[in-house]
Write a structure and sequence with these properties.
The protein has about 140 residues and is mainly α. Helix content is about 85%, strand content about 0%.
């Protein structure tokens, strides 16, 4: 509030840019989820037949990635315009927008953890398939 004193529209624009950054992160993770699922479609059959650990790790990776994708979709489709939050009390408006930003950021961070877990499982599946194939 102090930084933008006397400039309420600049403050709201600043908060809108933060919401945009969070949505952009969710979109990036969604793209990564799509890539993981696509690659699994090509290499999945080989990993499933390579070893039971490889199959289990691949399925776990896909499941974690799917959870991440669902969370990201939730963040990206929960559209609420800042103009819908506007009240006569600027502080109340700012508090609500910041709360929404923080909620979306928390969800996106959780989705990132699921993406990392999914990638870890997927890479473990690839490694197991490679060792069985070369064994």
């Amino acid at each position: 509030m102090t930084l933008f004193e006397g400039q309420p529209s600049a403050l709201l624009n600043y908060l809108v840019s933060q919401l945009t950054a969070v949505r952009s992160q969710a979109q990036t993770m969604m793209g990564l989820c799509g890539l993981i699922i696509t690659v699994t479609g090509f290499s999945g059959p080989r990993m499933v037949t390579a070893a039971s650990f490889s199959a289990i790790a691949m399925v776990m990776g896909i499941a974690l990635t799917l959870i991440a994708a669902i969370i990201c979709l939730n963040v990206m489709t929960a559209i609420r315009w800042v103009s819908q939050e506007l009240e006569d009390d600027l502080v109340a408006t700012i508090v609500r927008v910041i709360e929404r930003r923080d909620t979306q950021l928390r969800r996106t961070t959780i989705a990132g953890a699921f993406v990392a877990g999914g990638l870890t499982c997927y890479l473990a599946a690839v490694a197991a398939a490679a060792f069985v194939g070369n064994g």
